[in-house]
Amino acid sequence: MAEAQKNPVPVGSTTAGQIAVAAESTVATRMSAPPSFDVADFPVPHGREEEWRFTPLERLRGLHDGTAVANGTGVKITVEAPEGVLVETVGRDDARLGKAGVPVDRVAAQAYSAFETASVVTVPKETVLTEPVRIAVHGEGGVAFGHQVIELGAFAEAVVVLDHTGDAVFAANVDFVVGDGAKLTVVSVQDWDEKAVHAGQHNARIGRDAHFKSVVVTFGGDLVRLYPRVEYAATGGEAELYGLYFTDQGQHQEHRLFVDHNTPHCKSNVAYKGALQGDDAHAVWIGDVLIEAKAEGTDTYEMNRNLVLTDGARVDSVPNLEIETGEIVGAGHASATGRFDDEQLFYLMARGIPEHEARRLVVRGFFAELVQQIGVQDIEERLIARIEEELEASVA
Amino acid sequence: MATLEIRDLHVTVEADNATKEILKGVDLTVKQGETHAIMGPNGSGKSTLAYSLAGHPKYTITSGTVLLDGEDVLAMSVDERARAGLFLAMQYPVEVPGVSVSNFLRTSATAVRGEAPKLRTWVKEVKGAMERLHMDASFAERNVNEGFSGGEKKRHEILQLELLKPKVAILDETDSGLDVDALRIVSEGVNRVRESGEVGTLLITHYTRILRYIKPDHVHVFAGGRIVESGGPELADKLENEGYEAYVKGGPVSGANSKEGAA
């Protein structure tokens, strides 16, 4: 067993961001209520609970206390799928909903209690898609609750892009049910307009020898708070959870990950990277990994890195690895927050490279390894373009 | 002919909430094709001179002028100075994670030359320069200075010198931390650039060792924030035999740098 807390504060960094490293505590008991589909099982948060302490509740626009009510002008959902994929819109009573995980906080439970119809996308067994399934969630300015299910049959292979744009107050749960031997890559892009609020939970349940890759890309919105969660239905499953965020002035972007190693001989690898700039840019990263006593042979690693580009931004990065068995292959975590430092800038500029170009080089370099993980060319290009836009804005 | 003229340069630095004058009136002219060695004890301000010329924000110029071919260097930003033809090989090159050497070199060459070098000839140019510095081709794919050994960092600096072809090259303690083999390779690189006759070289060093490989035309002794004695190569021999003691203790700058001078 190797638990590494690598460089919580990088040498030479004078970051204005802050780092909080939690003492080990039980993942389950840190939540203020047990998981439930019913919003009534959760008290209205007051903000001091472990799972809410970083979140500005007043900016949730009522998603947390029942005052946000769906008004029919929330979001427009369009699903574009290649042949062989079954796309359905179903009612609340459909048996396929809620199989990958249970809401863990009041907002996710609110979404589950309030949605009217759900989208179910099924890739039948042994179907290998060559084009991605694209689910566009476009905010129309109102309040909406949603539920989506992506289910892959055994040995199916698919890439699914969840693309969030526009303006909305939106809470939703997304279930990913990955059949035995199947391979699912999900790219969830939060490219909201600046006023949007988005909260929700991504639940993945990974079948025997199945592979799940999630790439969460968060750029826009006033407040985005997501829970990517993974559990294993059988042995041999593998999860790769990647994330990129670019947190701008005034934005709150929170990613709370949980990998539940509840099954022997499964793997997980978590890597999230964020860049921050501007006053009151706030990024929160929580990485909870639990290796249960029965999960022998587990191999897991999680990493979060933050690049603080200007003064006034704040990062809270909390990796938390809880190990109940020593019979594992490996376990580790790392968190580092560093500043784009003046020495790097000086070095590049001393080679004739103008300041904005130097920043571009460093930020692109910082994100490069994760951008490559997306594997969907138009999304990669859009992402790089958005990074450049954000950087241009900071220079101007 | 390119000329760097430094006149009565005074530089301060902020340290421990106090302003400290480090350079106290430096006068020096470096012409194209010439090599000047600046030698001095630790803390004499040699590196401050190098970094001030390159425009490091830590240093404040309080008076004096620096002209490159008559252009006011001090009015230029760091990148403008580099594009005007100044090059600083750093004593402690900075790691830039996520940026590959090849990407960095090409971006830099594009900036300094004013246009992107043609890919075909560029690849050949870089490959050739790397081979001459005994650098493995895999080097280009590594991140700038990340995990480089001391010798690799210095070779990488000289690689940039060869590719960017500046008018004036300032080499700040390029010899420090190098073993004899690495010193020879790096010196050969510097000499190749000097042989073009198109570069003025300002070689800053604590030791005379590098001067066996890179022969200076002029040697200056730096102490207490300015040049206290200038001469030909024979001055280096004198320093080799006698050290800096005379300049630190008995010289006109006695006590000015007692703190650093003792190091």
Quick summary of this structure?
The complex is a heterodimer of chains A (396) and B (263). With 396 residues, chain A is α/β, with parallel strands linked by helices. Helix content of chain A is 15%, strand content 42%.
The largest sheet of chain A is: 17 strands, mixed
Specify the helix fraction band of chain B.
25-40%
| Spatial gap, N to C terminus of chain B | 40 Å
The oligomeric state of the chains shown is heterodimer
Note the gap between the termini of chain A. Answer: 48 Å
Radius of gyration of chain B, CA atoms, in whole angstroms: 18 Å
- What form of chain A results from the Cα inertia axes? globular
In round numbers, the mean pLDDT of chain A is 90
Question: What share of the residues of chain A lie within helices?
Answer: 10-25%
Going across the biggest sheet of chain B, name each strand in turn. 6-9-10-3-11-12
Keywords (chain B): ATP-binding, Nucleotide-binding
Protein name (chain B): Fe-S cluster assembly ATPase SufC
Family (chain B): Belongs to the ABC transporter superfamily. Ycf16 family.
Pfam family, one (chain B): ABC_tran
Describe the secondary-structure layout.
The complex is a heterodimer of chains A (396) and B (263).
Chain A: E1 5-6, H1 27-30, E2 75-80, E3 86-90, H2 106-114, E4 118-123, E5 133-152, E6 157-178, E7 183-190, E8 197-206, E9 211-218, E10 223-232, E11 238-247, E12 252-261, E13 267-276, E14 282-291, E15 299-308, E16 314-323, E17 330-339, H3 342-349, H4 355-374, H5 377-395
Parallel strand pairs in A: 1-17, 4-5, 5-6, 6-7, 6-8, 7-9, 8-10, 9-11, 10-12, 11-13, 12-14, 13-15, 14-16, 15-17
Antiparallel strand pairs in A: 2-5, 3-4
Chain B: E1 3-15, E2 18-31, E3 35-39, H1 46-54, E4 59-68, E5 71-72, H2 78-84, E6 86-89, E7 96-100, H3 101-113, H4 119-132, E8 143-144, H5 150-164, E9 168-172, H6 180-195, E10 200-205, E11 218-223, E12 226-231, H7 234-242, H8 245-250, H9 258-261
Parallel strand pairs in B: 3-10, 3-11, 6-9, 9-10
Antiparallel strand pairs in B: 1-2, 1-4, 4-5, 7-8, 11-12
Helix pairs in contact in B: 5-6
